[in-house]
């Protein structure tokens, strides 16, 4: 897999993680979640703290959601569109 494909995969996985978190913890605010050199991460603002014991449940939800994701798309939006889309998120 070339580095661009790997970067895209990691970026998509970050979005999958965010989707799983929002399904399990709907009041969570998402912040930033980039692909990085050796994987990906996402920062979240949880209203209810989670711990390492929650990770299997999150992974399971990611697996469930992935089965429903038939494709990935890329869309660029203007700053105004992004602000409207995330108007309830202070981050």
Largest sheet: 2 strands, antiparallel
Q: Which consecutive residue ranges, at least 5 long each, have pLDDT under 50?
A: none
What is the helix content? 40-55%
- Quaternary organisation of the protein chains: single chain
Count every beta strand, where a strand is a DSSP E run of 2 or more residues. Answer: 4
By secondary-structure content and strand pairing, the structural class works out as mainly alpha
As laid out across the biggest beta sheet, the strand order is 1-4
Mean pLDDT: 91
Strand content: 5-15%
User: For the terminal residues, how far apart are their CA atoms?
Assistant: 33 Å
Order of helices and strands: HEEEEHH
**Radius of gyration over all CA atoms, rounded:** 14 Å
Any idea what the shape is? globular
Count of separate DSSP helical elements: 3
Commentary on this structure:
This protein is mainly α. The protein has three helices and four strands, in the order H-E-E-E-E-H-H. It has helices at 3-24, 55-66, 79-85, and strands at 29-30, 35-36, 39-40, 44-45. Strands 1-4 form a two-stranded antiparallel ribbon. Strand 2 and strand 3 form a beta hairpin. Helix 1 (3-24) crosses helix 2. The longest helix is centred in the N-terminal third of the chain and has 22 residues, at 3-24. The termini are far apart. The model has no long low-confidence stretch (mean pLDDT 91).
């Amino acid at each position: 897999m070339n580095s661009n494909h790997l970067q895209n995969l990691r970026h998509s996985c970050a979005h999958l993680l965010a989707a799983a978190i929002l399904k399990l913890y709907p009041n969570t605010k998402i912040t930033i979640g980039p692909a990085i050199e050796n994987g990906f991460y996402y920062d979240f603002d949880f209203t209810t703290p989670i711990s390492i014991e929650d990770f299997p449940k999150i992974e399971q939800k990611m697996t469930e959601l992935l089965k429903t994701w038939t494709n990935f798309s890329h869309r660029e939006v203007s700053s105004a569109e992004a602000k409207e889309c995330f108007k309830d998120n202070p981050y």
